[in-house]
Amino acid sequence: MPADAFVTKLNEQIGYEFAASQQYVAVAAYYDAETLPRLAAFFYRQAIEERNHAMMMVQYLLDAGADPVIPAVEGPRNGFGDIVEPVRLSLDQERRVSDQVAALARIARDEGDYASEQFMQWFIKEQVEEVASMSDLLTVVGRAKDNPLLAEEFLARESIGDGGDDAGAPSAAGGAL
Questions:
Q1: pLDDT digit string (tens) for 83-92?
Q2: Is 23:14 a contact under the CB 8 Å cutoff?
Q3: What DSSP state is assigned to residue 127?
């Protein structure tokens, strides 16, 4: 059974992951409305990935004999002034999640909950990739602010982010939905 302090914080993190998923849907919808389909597709994929992170956490708690608690989430920000704002918001969000994931690993270690600490290692690695991808995208959209089609061209040409495909990823509740 995982440490109580870890379970409490992991249940909170489930809410943060669902909130991130909703925020990415709002960002994707903004880009869709601006007729920027590649940016929209990138963020729709990010939304699914964040949802799956929450479901991995739910499955871990179920597997470990702890009760998952699905919290309410704050609504996402909608509407942006330019193509840069949503990516800047997203990078800030990914940095915040990185800090939260590190704190979860620290709690597990401090509590002597080595199974939970091991579970968090995949998320630590994932957050390094997420911050790097979002940093790169922020640089690109910043350069393309006056000509958003350049950002679209970049996304058509380059592959950023991993799309969540990782054979070593934890199992998600509900399977591969």
A1: 999 999 999 9
A2: no
A3: H
CATH code, 91: 1.20.1260.10
Tokens found for residue 141: 């959209």
Tokens read off for 77: 């920000």
The position carrying tokens 């871990």 is: 60
Give the CA distances from residue 51 to residues 116, 139, 156, in Å, rounded to whole numbers and listed in that order: 20, 26, 24
| Polymer length of the chain | 177
Helix, strand, coil shares of the chain, percent, nearest 5, are: 70, 0, 30
The pLDDT tens digits for 119-160 are 999 999 999 999 999 999 999 999 999 999 999 999 999 878
* Residue where the block lists tokens 């199974």: 115
Q: How far apart are CA 81 and CA 98, in angstroms?
A: 26
Whether 47 is covered by a domain: the verdict is yes
Structure tokens at 43: 């963020």
Residue 35 per-residue DSSP state: T
**Residue 164 is assigned to a structural domain of this protein:** no
